[in-house]
Amino acid sequence: MNDQKHNLSELLLDDSHAWRIHNCKLIKKSCHREGTLPFIYHYDRLSTELKKEFQLTGQLLINFNKPMTAKQACQLIGIDKKNIASPIFIKITGSIVVVCEPLQLAIRLHWSNTSKNEDAIYCQDEQQAIAQAIQKWQFIGRVDTLYKLKQDNAPTIIGGYDELASSLADGQYPLPISDNYQLMPYKFSCDLLTKLNDNLHQLAWIKQTIVERLN
Question: Is the same domain home to 26 and 116?
Answer without folding.
Answer: yes
